[in-house]
Amino acid sequence: MSSTERDERREQQAHEEPQENQEIQEQQQNVSQEQREEEGTSSKRERTLERKTSAYSLSLSQYMECMEMRESTGYQVYPGTEREDYDFNAERFGVYSTNLIESTAHLVKGCLGAGILSMHEAYMFAGLWTSVIVTIILATIMSHTMMMLVKSAQKMYPLLRLPRLTYPDLLEVAVATGPWKGLRCFSKCFRYAADFFLFFQMCGTCCIYEIMIANTLKGVLEAVSDSLQESNYDVRIYILIITVPLLAICLIRSLKYLAPFAMVADTFVAICVLTTIYYSLKQAQNISDRPAWKSFSGVIRFCGICLYSMDGIGVTLPVENNMERPRYFYVVVAYGMTIVITSITITGFFGYWGWGEECTSPVTIHMPMTDTLPIILQFLMAAMLSITFAVNFWVPFRVVWHYIGRKYKRNRCFWERIFRATHVILITAIAITFPHLIQLMIFIGNFPLVFIAFVFPPLIESLVTWKDDTLFKGVVRWRIVKNCIIILFGFTISTSNLVAYGEGL
């Protein structure tokens, strides 16, 4: 071999060696990358689970996801062992916590709404003294179911290592961690049912406020205009008229701009109610002229309006979640429900005593229109109810926006206003379709509220305390029996409403 060939061979070998080394390095990198990916895949779930369960305050969705990742046959007890004793109150990091007086005020505000303006008509259905007795019975059961929710939630906080729960959250975890294994897989369905009934109730409340505003506006305009009184336009026309200002108010995306006006509105409505009671006492006749009992169907109608007037189940857990001392919630219920019972009883009792069989909702419509002051108060009443409508509109819209808002990441403000406007139009369409205020209030009180107040809370307590309260070595579970009676009572009211509603058509 000549020297020239040897030089060419050396140059070729020198050129091929870096390429071979580069290929070997690439193969080694690919192998190590595959090993890392396999190791990452095998430990991904463990790392995610460890990361999520190490925190004290998890969201409910994280908790449920962690339990699914454990591949258990059913939701089991939360395995958190960071601390033996979990203080849920210490884990709440709120900017502002309410004391007992503030919490009582919030509970009273959540209970008293549009229903109090129709209690006098409810008394007309059942009779004077029958209505008083039924009001006390319903308020007692309602207070007990409120305490059911709070005690069950406070029992679940340490178990789940969660500092707070909403109503749908509590129902979901009660079913998911309950003793009935066949029911655990339906925990999401129960959550959606709670969301649906709360949404249904608040949409109905918005419809009721819109009808009340229309009735008030109709009464005032016909009192000051003879031509409108002769025309006697249907209330549906006035519902269409007020849709435009209500739509404009509901496009406000920040609740902080509405909250101060809402406080003024509530105060003004209370003043109008007291003024109306003053006029009712001036017209009151012999109290023996008012029947004490009327009919069973009338009592069922009364139950619907009364439940709607005192319902505070939806605000129970939000009030408890923001208390400084949540273990004293029973004090809030005791004082708050006493104020609620007194308010609706006074309004209904004196309203029916004063106007008898001529009762019409809202109660403020009975103000005499011969003086200037009542006319001004009626106009302001319609304006204040519009603010209250916008505040109540927030609850059902947030439920809807929670599910559909996640699909609109871009131009989120624009799409939120589009859906707000659509929601207001749908509420208006329902109000136009069912403009009878009392029938709508009876239906809401006897259908969605029965499930929220008399069916779900006993179910939650039964699931949470199944293994705790037993008598006679587990043969009789007294809480289960008591809860079954409450559920049966709720179903009786709801079923009887179908008969009463059919008679009213």
Automatic annotation (TrEMBL):
Keywords: Membrane, Transmembrane, Transmembrane helix. It comes from the Eukaryota. The chain crosses the membrane at residues 122-142, 196-215, 235-252, 259-279, 329-355, 375-397, 418-434, 440-460, 480-501. Residues 1-51 are annotated as: Disordered. The lineage of its organism: Eukaryota, Metazoa, Ecdysozoa, Arthropoda, Hexapoda. The keyword DNA-binding does not apply. It comes from Manduca sexta (Tobacco hawkmoth). Residues 1-18, 34-51 have a biased composition (Basic and acidic residues). InterPro entries: AA_transpt_TM. GO terms for cellular component: vacuolar membrane. This is Amino acid transporter transmembrane domain-containing protein. Pfam families: Aa_trans (PF01490). It is a multi-pass membrane protein. Residues 21-33 have a biased composition (Low complexity). GO terms for molecular function: L-amino acid transmembrane transporter activity. Residues 100-494 form the Amino acid transporter transmembrane domain. It is found in: Membrane.
